[in-house]
Amino acid sequence: MRIKVLLIGDDPAYKVADAQLLRERGLLPFTAFNPQNIDELVAEIKPDVVFFDPHSTNNMITDAYNSFVGDITHTQTPVIFTLADDDVYLVTKKRTTAKGKRTNIADNIISAVKMALQTAKSYHKKTYKIPHQTIAIPTFISRA
Length: 144
Fold this sequence. Notes:
This protein is an alpha/beta fold. It is 32% helix and 21% strand. Strand 3 (49-53), helix 3 and strand 4 (79-83) form a beta-alpha-beta unit.
């Protein structure tokens, strides 16, 4: 099963190169240029990672990112946001983990996707097994 990445941006020319790079690495990219219907796309595609990449000066993609991260229905989906000024990738882990350790920074798109997927898998609930043994439970006299 291939890893699905939903690429959301405001300029189709920039997404073509990113989608081609992800496709060459064996991932399955989906592109979207309309941030108004992100919820429907996520429900239909069920991506493993959502990638926001703003390239224009308007705040349309940034607002879509903020509303996506703030929505409780998308807490299990790792999110990547491109900081256009620095050419770094801000990886937001699933929002059920500790608040202080939610974001990381990667320097390219492939390492950002790997980091997002590793953080999503590494924070599963830990289960502890208690060995089965007989325990003597003391009985106390109680007043009736």
